[in-house]
Records
---
Amino acid sequence: MNIQERYCFHLAKTQQNHLIFASRDEDVKAHFFILEEGIFRVLFEKQTGLEVGKTWSIAPGQDDLPHRGRDRFSTEHFSLPGYTLSEDEQSFAIQTRQLKAVIQKEGFRIDWYHTTHGQWQLFAQDRQTQAYNFNGELGQELKHYLKRDIQEQYYGLGERSGHLNHHHRRYRNITIDAMGYDAEHSDPLYKHIPFYITRKPEQAFSYGLFYDNLAPGYFDMGRELDNYHGLYRYFEAESGDLDYYMIAGPHMRDVVTSYTWMTGNTALPPKWSIGYSGSTMSYTDAPNAQEQVWEFIEQCEKHDILCDSFQLSSGYTSIDGKRYVFNWNTQKFPDAKKLSADFKRKGIRLAANIKPALLTDHPQYAKLESLGYFLKDESGNTELAQFWDGGGAHVDFTNEGAYTWWKEEVTRQLLEYGIETTWNDNNEYEIWSKGTQADGFGARLPFTRIRALFPLLMMKASFEAQTTYASEKRPFLISRSGAPGMHRYVQTWTGDNRTEWKTIKFNNKTGIGLSLSGVYNFGHDVGGFAGPKPDSELFIRWVQNGIFHPRFTIHSWNEDATVNEPWMYNEAVAPIRQLIKLRSRLTPYWYSAFYKAHVHHEPILKPTFFDFEEDTRTWLENDDFLVGESLLVASVVEPGVSTRDVYAPEHPGGWFDFYTGRFIAGGTQATLDAPHHQTPLLVKAGAIIPTNEASRTFANKDEDQRGFLLFPPRGANGISRYTHYEDDGETSHWRTAHALVELQMHTSEDAIHVTTDVISNGYRLPYESAIFILATGDTRTLYINGEEKPKSNEVTASL
């Protein structure tokens, strides 16, 4: 009997939308799930059962999952649509109205079809020369091979270096501390997100593949060639289970929002987290750390730099220069509780760095080892690994006691000090021994099978501590490493980048890759973390870019011990001040975008093709990106320039220069001024941009005056709509206490009509009127809710 004959499958059992196929010898089961009209799932199970019986990734439309995970066979929260099943001599066909899978009985090879104009069209195929590694015929790893078309484009894969289109590259799927990485070439980086999107240009069709597997592995997107198999690509994992989801488009937007919904809701952060967050390793490493941290606030006040939070690097935990999590160095910080209170009095929240490993001379090491709270080697002893300043042991978050201990320490050593935010750092879990074991919540598991789970459980334990301690407050957390589902809990950043011009360019693409992989709340270390300090021009351009990311933090560990600060260059202070105030002015726009990310699973930062898919020029590699519904950011990514060429995507109403109101036709190239105090920025015609028009200074950071920038399209019969979201910005009651301001703008040849409708859901707006600003210099008569307004670019009107 040859391999193909042995692995000939028959339908063994049907359980509603769960079909179970078995191989001839019944040593392999193939579970097939029809979850949504456009989402099917394939799970292979050996005779010995699943290696990992739970998932921590799948949470359809949910905010959270139990820390023990979700049963891998559960279909809860999926709609489970009707489907048809047919069989002939060679195959099975399973279809909904949108998606069809034709499964060959021999080898369980699948051909995938989508409907277009009432016809089924083939869009993906398993490799015909064996697609799966059922019994070690293709090596020891799990593998899934698909046919590859040379025209296909591959996007996503989480946090990756280089260009957006990943065709012809090979990536290692593992978390690693990639200090000072090259944003163009380095791989792997900090996150484990085994999801990617394939675009078929000739069909204008996109689909996604998500592999629910937490073990290290690879994605080969066409780098490997083998004459015996034709063109192919493949997923590989060291262990665990082959469990994958096929997500049909047809559009890129459909795939991204479906995948993000499937892995859970994006956390809605408190409004203060949108502001500038100060940080550097230098302050907390200094002997007089508390003085230096406070001096940062004094400098912000002196230079009128708006700042809403500050991140305490791990130096606050030091003993003789080494880091010891949950330990306060009282010589550096003689009164940390007072520091926290003083910062809050200035309107600034503190975030404290925590790490998931304890050095062997940590004050609590012996206690935790005696309780069995660390990961263990195959002999049952504590597994030691290199960590920062020497050998250390990693907390086993699959041990109930260790999970509880972590929450208690977060509460005792941070939250009770008045620190509201945890910064979960160095949580890549770099343990390389194949024999390392995890408690597995009482069912011991090899660490490798669930390696990427540990940063997720670390942030979830911190999240639970924060929500328990201050149930009225909306939790806010930061994490460097992570896995699918991390967006339910944390904000992230792309780790310890290197200071050089190309980092801005390629970090933009890394961030867009995260957006296309369901992680929307992210940013980059502005100014560069490692390497030389940025010169003045590079620093300013980096700030220009950084203010248009969901996370805006200037953070550094420069080789010459300098610190990236807004005032590090005299000539840079004024433009940086102005740039940060622009971000502050746009806070309401950012906040509404976060709300829509949570409710509609819409990315906040997007590639231009996301909203303009039919414009073929947007698919070319470029340095631009969209923020929210209406803004197009054209970052300056090279030195010595004073203008920036930008392509305005095809849009019937065209675009406007944000600063001058100059009209730019869609589908054309434009040259924008790029002075130091302005990020080159286009606005889509028809846009309504909510703003804070208060003249905020450091002393009155909380002042708020709602404004709406209007960018009416030229000509008649232009209609646009915008939904603005409001709540108290901080508490956990936002689901039952918020308001929506529905705005509509209609243009005729001689008038602009704006109407507003306030929908209150248990929350009363703190304002009854707003400032409406015609940002394009339009001379047509403006009507607000039917009332004619005087000829002016700026008017106040009741809502």
---
Amino acid sequence: MRDWAGRWPLVGRDAELACFAAALADGGCRGFVVGGAAGVGKSRLAEECLESAAAAGYRVGRATASVAAGAVPLGAIAHLLPVGVDLSDPVAGFAAVVRELASGPGRQWALFVDDMHLLDAASAVLLRQLMDTGVLLLIGTVRTGEPYGEAVAALRGGDAVYRVDLTVLGSEQVEALLQAALGRPVARRTLHTLAATSGGNVLYLRELVLGALSAGNLTEDGEMWHLADDRLPGTARLTEMIGTRLAGADSAGRPVLELLALCEPLPLTYAEALAPPQVTAALERAGLIRVAQDRRRTTVSLAHPLYGEVLRAGLPVLRRRELLLDQAARVQARGARRRGDPLHIAGWQLTATGTADPALLARAAVLARHAHDLPQTVALLDALPEKHRTTVTDLRLGEALFELGRWGRAEATLARADALAVEEQDRLAVALVRTTNLLWSNAPVAEALAVNAAARERISGPADRRKLTINEGFLRIVGGRPAEGLALLEDLETDVGAAPDVNAWLRGAWMKPAALALVGRTAEATTWARRAHDAHRQVQERALASHPAFQRVPLVLALTEAGLPAAEACHEGEQAYAELTAAGSPVRIWLAVLLGRAHWLAGHPVTARRWWAEAATVARSIDHAMALRLVLAGLAACAAVLGDLDAAEATLAEHRTLPPVEPGLLSAGEELLGEAWLLAARGQVGRARSVLAEGAATARASGHVTGEALLLTDIARLGGAKEVTGRLAALALVCDGELAPVRAELARALAADDPEPLLLAADACHAVGADLLAAEAATAAAAAWRRADRPRRAAAADRRAAAARARCEGARTPLLTTARATAPLTAREREIALLAAIGNSSKDIATALALSVRTVDNHLQHAYAKLGVTTRHQLAQALGVVE
């Protein structure tokens, strides 16, 4: 079992380490001081510096200053002093220490003193003398804001002392540290929670992770680490450290800290109602609170998120109730004039007493919804007494539950709302949300369409019936029928301002660009997706869908299919994913799906695997089979291309256990990618092509034009270019953007096996960011030049292929691994040779390819002769299967 509590790697401090390297190289340097707040990693950096000094030949030592040691002269460094030196006369004694230390073997000393600001004056004076005489290189840490005497100040001063100041880690550095420490990536939601809760403080982060590991809340699924329900129990050591920090506050400031723990942020006037201004100022100087100025408004909050956790845990129940109710009364006494005041008052009253005024709860729930706080929305509406529940309140509750991925409870709530509905408008509103919830909850598309049709039977107004038509288009697109859905959305207004109903328009505008992208109309798709996003931000106060970032889902798809798989599409998707992750919305799953797909198309299997693993984590947490089937296929494909065949097989085994669902968005055919690429990695390229052909037929039947093109391109890459060239050329005529023509050009070049067209295809693939396709085309061109006995041109093509392969994150495809070694081989000889190289017997190969054993052996003998090998092991080496 891994020792997680051991020393963690040092991450994000490259600049500081470079500064220390410069200090070591500077013959005049006498000290290197690391400053920063408690817990930012000062000691860890200093330890690394001490090890660097030792590696450079320094004699090393270390000491830790403390309040207790500082009470005794030389107490912190007594263990480092030479034996027998008389220090009764400080002048003579200090000179003797310098002589003794200087006379020892080896180079000068490097001494690490932790918490140097706590040194006693005698220790500081002696260390300065050792530094000035060149005997000692001091490496020290000092805590920002701590007082220290003149003697210690002398250790930090002068041109001969280098100084660096550490800040907390940013989210990217936190991610890098967690991956280095845990050995696998961390899910984005988990990363967000850990980064936000720790505030980037390395010490706090470590204790949070150790606590979550110990409690079993932080687990890994073979691909990445993720938290269960965002719970972070921390450790007793963490609580003790923060408690000690808070205990240093003036007792007069304790009420302010307690109130902030429950109600932050607050206007400064409320904090000063509990304590005099000088007390609040002292709390700020001590680094316990943060005061921010926004125009004329001054707000106060705790300086670190964990301060609130510890303070709340220590509050007695009645004290907590008293603070919350008093604060609610203060805000009400001032007229509750700010927009968010009803939400705050309702939340405080609910936390304090378990109830609140029903009208206030309902009003606060609306505010929470528009603030994208879905858990708070649910909590407020759940608190409504039964007699105050209405169609509107149940509808809002059902919407929030749906967006949190609680499908079963959402359906029950929405069914109750439907039963309470009297007016047509209420029935319509419920039907729109209920159908979407059914679609996401793995129910058959036919069931959602039936609810939509039933609502249409009860609705008489033409405008309202049109909303249901828009909804049907939405459902059919999500259900995997893009052309049918587009037909129903053909007359959707291009301007939300001209739409009779904002929410109906947003629903149609969300899926219309996705359908346009799937049928190859990528320019229109991009325009519509940007239009929908801008409109959603403009009208979000009236929008039922709680976050405008939803509209980035079809934009990522549209940009990818237009031929920007790894550039703009990924930038847009990652930005939107961060927004939805912070909001806790499970709809982010589709952004992760599409980001994985974009990187797969770009030929970046490691990054694609990372995003698909992210999507799998979300899908499992909300039981979303439609997405999970697609995601597992992508994960298996990435693992296969990276040579991790065991992981690919395990992922496909999970895929086979999933309940069958109807083809949905993107899943028509593409969910066979994993099976196909695992077969290809095992050398069974003929079977892989058959699987891909089956998927392409499914995509074609359901109208997924771009999905069909993706699958046909993979057939071309696996030796079937001649069979698919015509269809890809036809698809290129109906698809706009750059990607479809590039796919057709690549297939034509592979079919012709002509080096010049192959190099042109490589250039075209590079232009659209398809690095793996570019590498394969250039590799095939190099092989063709070698067959034509043009070694210089082959070498030039090899260089281009190598440059492209360097961007492909270690991908290994049959075309990359065998093209060069098997240039003289026919396609059939190459296929059989690869199967033999990975350990298949002639009988097994004959069975897999429907050939006779004699035919297999004849092809193998031809391959041996052409490659100049005599054994299967040599064959495997020639094909690049083994090193």
